[in-house]
Design a protein that fits this description.
single chain, mainly alpha, 2 helices, 0% strand, flat
Length: 81
């Protein structure tokens, strides 16, 4: 897991309003992720959905990729490196 370093004087467990109290588990597992997400959800707002307008096919001209980038991608395996 990532080696996290903390600098400062904030107490473990958080003194911020709405923070989780008690010991902080920095080595959490996958089972703790849904609960972590549920606790963070009220603090995050989703932007209003932008409605995409259709683009005329005559305005689509393709994608140009530099030769060096194309060679790099060609040399990669199908499942990533």
């Amino acid at each position: 897991m990532t080696n996290l370093e903390f600098h400062g004087s904030a107490p473990a467990g958080g003194a911020v309003a709405g923070a989780v109290t008690g010991p902080v588990d920095l080595e959490g597992d996958l089972a703790s992720l849904p609960g972590d997400g549920a606790r963070m959800a009220p603090r995050w707002t989703a932007p209003a959905a932008a409605k995409a307008s259709p683009v005329s096919p005559s305005r689509i001209h393709g994608v140009r990729v530099p030769a060096g980038s194309a060679r790099l991608l060609e040399a990669m395996s199908d499942y990533g490196d």
